[in-house]
Amino acid sequence: MIGKFLETLYTKVFINIIVENLQTVVYVEVCSKKDVLQSTHKVFETTTINSKMYEFVRPFFKETPFCYISVLDKSSNQGAVPTCSINEMEKFCDINASEHICYSDKWAFYTSEYDLEAIKHEYRSIGLDFIFSPFAIMANFFKDKIENTPAMFVLIEDNYLSFSIFDNSKLLYGEYLNMQHHKDDEDMLIDSLLENEDVSLGIKGIDIEDMSLDDDSTDFDDFTNIEDLDSADDMDEFSEMHEVQETVESDVDISSEGFNEDYQRFSLIQSALNTFYKDPKYESQFIETIYIADGIGTSAELKSYLEEEMFLNVYVRKIDLGVAVCEMAKAEANEI
């Protein structure tokens, strides 16, 4: 009772931390009981807390005793499972090395205990009140759509994709996709192709230097090896974007440093959907719609890939991750 009374006398401050690939975004809201009195954000060129970030958030601690600090979980070893039963979870993840939380008593998201402790240690100088799973953010953001027909739901971050499939609020499949791991796999494939290219030039032990270039019998095989489209800023929140007229080339130059990022995202989504269809652990069914929460501003190429290569109905909604985390923090603070 005393705590609730004090809440009426002080404002509440919500500090929300989003770690990206090369920088960190800190979004802050100062709230009265009913209104947002102030909102601000600042970008720091670091992925760990430093003195500049500390100096930015420190004044807010002095403003009120009700200050809540949240961070979006970026752990690689996390995911979502279609059950809240401990025994059934073991089929999908190492439950002994993870912590999990059930969502609406229907499904659960998890992350490794080691990664959670690492996050707490990183922010020990300021403390953490909430560590939010991107799957919880996505489920809250698409709450109205998840309750309807079967569909894929994807939250796009700087280097990660939270991929899930729901049918009438029931999670059928969930996976946290790491673009960097995918890029490493591509690099290994490219290296392998280049090694095979070298082998083919020296087939059957023939020494290239000993071969005469004038020898007519010698044949050398030819080894052959997307301009970003502007995002539709004026699209309706859930109206389908105009179909992209440009065709996407199917051949990718292996000599490039890697596929463009939207193609990587498309490839990860395609692979995850194939796993859902083929793995007997999951209650697979045909999926023809995908909803994307775009937290970084992807190009129209991703939508084009999904429509033209996978024949999906694609809907895109922009999401401000700092604001989305803040909304979750406010809901949790009200429960305390």
Describe this structure in words.
The protein has 336 residues and is of the alpha/beta class. It is 34% helix and 25% strand. It is built from ten helices and 13 strands. It has a five-stranded mixed beta sheet, sandwiched between helices. A five-stranded mixed beta sheet has the order 11-10-9-12-13, sandwiched between helices. It has a three-stranded antiparallel beta sheet with strand order 5-7-6. The longest helix has 23 residues, at 179-201.
| pLDDT < 50 stretches | 184-194, 197-258
The helix/strand series, from N terminus to C terminus, equals HEEEHEEHEEHEHHEEEHHEHEH
Strand proportion, as a percent range, falls in 25-35%
The main sheet comes to: 5 strands, mixed
Output the structural class: alpha/beta
> What is the molecular shape?
globular
> If you compute it from the alpha carbons, what radius of gyration comes out, rounded to the nearest whole angstrom?
24 Å
Average pLDDT, rounded to a whole number, is 82
Strand order of the largest sheet: 3-2-1-4-8
Q: What's the short version?
A:
The protein is of the alpha/beta class and 336 residues long. It is built from ten helices and 13 strands.
